[in-house]
Amino acid sequence: MKVMCLFLGLFLVFAADAQTLGERAKATTKQKVGDRMDQTISGGVDSGVNRAGRVLGGLFKKRKKDDPAPAAPVDASTGAAAAPGAAMAPAGQQPANVSAGPAVVTAYGDFVPGATVLMDEHFDKDALGDFPAQWNTNGSGKLVNVGGQNGKWLDIALNSIVNPVLNKPLPENSTVSFDLFLQAQGDQVVPTIQFGLTAVSDLLKEDIAYKDKFFVGIGRYAENDGHTLEYGLRDVVGNKNDFPLVSYAGKVLHIDMAINKTRIRVYADQVKLIDLPRALTPGMRNNFYVASMSMVPAPQLDVLVGNIRIASAETDARSLLVKQLMEEGKATTNDILFDVNSDVIKAASYPVIDALVDGLKANAAVRVQITGHTDSDGTAAHNLDLSQRRAAAVKNYMVSHGIDGSRLQSDGKGMTQPVASNDTEAGKAKNRRVEFVKL
Asked: Does domain 74-315 have CATH number 2.60.120.200?
C-alpha cells in the first residue's frame, strides 16, 4: 500500500511538471514566433532603407585606389574589352530597334512630346572617345558606337552622373525623351541605372544626394528573379517590377518623361509606369540627369544613353500642328522622329501623326502634301533619298490608320531647303522636319 501511494504521488508530481513544461513551451513558442515576425518586419523595412541608402548614398563617394576600375564596354564578337569608340554588340543576337520591343498592353495616348525643342542631342559634333562638350559630369564617360545601333552613345562610367548643360531650368510643362541601351554580356554584372530630375545645377559643386530630386532606378535587368525598377524622391517610394525589364537586356529601352508643374509621368517603351501628381518641386526642374550607381558587387558594364530630346510642352505639339494646318494651310514639325539614317518612325512620334489622322478624318475634303527635309550631314543624294523615304513612311502610316491614299502625296527635299544653320546641333534639329501643306 505504501508503495502504491508512493507511485501515485510521483505520478501526480510528474503530471504537474509536464503541464507546466507544456505551458512554458507554448509560451516560448508563441514568443519566438512573435519575435521572428517582429524581426522579419523590421528586417524588411531595414532592408528597404538600406537598399535605398546604398543606391542613393553611394553615388558620389570618391572611388578608393583599391576599388576596381570601371569595366570597358565589351565587344560580344570577341569577348574582349572594346577600345574607346569601338563597336559593341550584346551576346547572342544583334539588338532590336527601339520600335521592336516586346508586345505589351500600352497606355500611351496621353504622352505628347513638347513642341519647342530645347535640346536634340545625338552627339554628332563630338568625337568618339571624348566626353560631349554640352554635358557635365562628376565622374567620367566617353562617346562610343554600339554594334547593331545607329549613332553615338554616351558611355557613363561606374559611380558617375551626367547631365546636359542647360541655360535655365526646364519649363513647368516640358518633356524629356531618351534611349537606354541595356548592356548584357554573359554573366557579367550589369550596371544599376538611375535617371530623373534634380535641383543640382552643377554636378561638380553640389551633391545630388542632399538636394530635392525625383529618380527612377533600374537594376539587375538581366536577372529573371532579381530585376528591379524603382522610383522615389530621395528615398524609394515604389516599384514597377511587373514591367518585362529582362526582355530588354541587350536591347534599347526608350524612356519618355512628361513634366506638368508638380506632376511627373514616366513611360518605358510606351508603357506608362509612373504618374505622380504632387511629386515635383520647382527646384527639381533645374536639370535632368542619368547615372551609373555605385553598387556591390561592382558592375562590369557601363550605362549607355543616347538620342536625348528635351522640349518645352507649353504648347501641345499635336493640337498646334493640326491647328496650323487647318487654319493656315501649312504646318511643320520636328516631332516626327526617325531612327538615325532610317525611315523607321520612332514610336514616340505616333501620337503626333495620330492627331493629324484625326484632323483629316474630321475634314474629309482636305488633301495634303507631305514633304520630308534633312540636315546637311551626308551627301546630297543620300539626304534626298532619305527625305523622300521618310515622307513616304508618314504617308503609309496615315493610310494604315484610315486615311485614303488618294488624299495624300509625299515628296522629299533633302538638305536643299534649310530653315536654320547646319553649323549647330540646334540648327540641324530644326532642319530635320516634316512639312504638311493643304492642296
From this structure: yes
